[in-house]
Amino acid sequence: MTWETHPVTLDRFEDFADVINPNRRATHCWCLSHRLRPKDIEELGGGDREQAMRTLCARKHPPGVVTYLDGVPVGWCNIGPRAEIPRLAGSKLIRPVDDVAVWSIVCVVVRSGHRKQGVTRPLIEGAVAYAASRGAPAVEAHPVDPPGRMDTTMAFVGTRSMFARAGFRVIGTTDAVASKLPRLVMRRDLTSSSNP
């Protein structure tokens, strides 16, 4: 098995879409709902969510990475500098822990038909490597810690154990919830030699 992870530039847009919206539904989230405000979507895509996402993919920091297993796109991670994610930068529920210019993981998606096959570990590692390559000092995520199986409608936030396996540690809590569970602040520092 060969894993590869790449930023979702315009030439990889269809691979990204195959993971998150294989039927290309216009009303689908297009992984924007937790990243942009409605006015940002209107500004970037004239109200067209797909076009707004394509516009983001053409920017200096594409809005995430796609992970491939043997050349097939199987996972997507929405990640970027917190300051460039309007919904997060302005959030009253998920406030910054400190003044570190972190990159934030907004969501993690494994393509239907490829779940429970170990995709999340290379996907998160690939997202962290992408952030590191762009000079990020640290990466944060805001998962939950479910006592059992996670509600699939909110699974995109990830779980504490998923991020702990990728070297993240809990550094705080938020006032946000997913599936009625509190969302944590987990961080992986990229400037320390102690990272896995």
TrEMBL record:
Cell division as UniProt keyword: no
- Does the record's keyword annotation contain Transferase? yes
PROSITE patterns with a match to the protein in the record = GNAT
Per its UniProt record, what InterPro entries does this chain match? Answer: Acyl_CoA_acyltransferase (IPR016181), GNAT_dom (IPR000182)
User: What keywords are assigned to this protein?
Assistant: Transferase
Q: Which GO terms describe its molecular function?
A: acyltransferase activity, transferring groups other than amino-acyl groups
Which Pfam family, any one, appears in the UniProt record?
Answer: Acetyltransf_1
Protein name stated in the entry: GNAT family N-acetyltransferase
